[in-house]
Amino acid sequence: VQLQASGGGLVQPGGSLRLSCAASGFTLRNYVIGWFRQAPGKEREGVSCINISAGSIFYADSVKGRFTISRDGAKNTVYLQMNSLKPEDTAVYYCVAVRKRYNSGFYASSWGRSSTYDYWGQGTQVTVSS
Predict the structure, then answer these.
(1) What is the pLDDT of residues 26-76, one digit of tens each?
(2) Where are the beta strands (DSSP E) in 44-116?
(3) Which of 43, 49, 83, 84 has the most beta carbons within 10 angstroms of its beta carbon?
């Protein structure tokens, strides 16, 4: 199982970026895929999660209405579209995955915990600054 995150960069406040998480070695449908971020001096934070087979999507309150998670099954890739970016969105963003073992209710309550996930990709830096 490998996760390759890309798409980070420097953007001005109010701008947009799209992060990509290319998965290899497994099929997205059998996994729960998420995005976490960590800013300097801060704890790691769950940003968003998609449980494809359950049709469930979750967002942190801090990004609701601005970020959108989606997937392309043909490319085995999950995306995080980030709009209306703010300086407080500056962080290293990580793509994460776990093979589904439990019912959807478990992931609905635990998606934001880093311990839920078995696989972590390398991070991609997002910097929001003027």
Answers:
(1) 888 899 999 999 999 999 999 999 998 888 999 999 999 999 999 998 999
(2) 45-51, 56-59, 67-72, 77-82, 91-99
(3) 49
- Which residues share a beta bridge with 95? 35
d(CA 82, CA 111): 19
Length of the chain: 130
Find tokens 């998480």 and name the residue.
21
% of the chain with per-residue pLDDT over 70: 100
Look up tokens 């960069």; give the residue.
9
Please report where in the chains the tokens 């309150």 appear, as a residue. 61
The answer for residues whose C-beta is within 8 angstroms of residue 101's C-beta and 6 or more apart is none
- CB count within 10 Å of CB 103 equals 9
Q: Running DSSP on this structure, what letter comes out for residue 25?
A: S
Whether residue 104 has pLDDT greater than 90: no
- Alpha-carbon distance of 16 to 18, in angstroms, equals 7
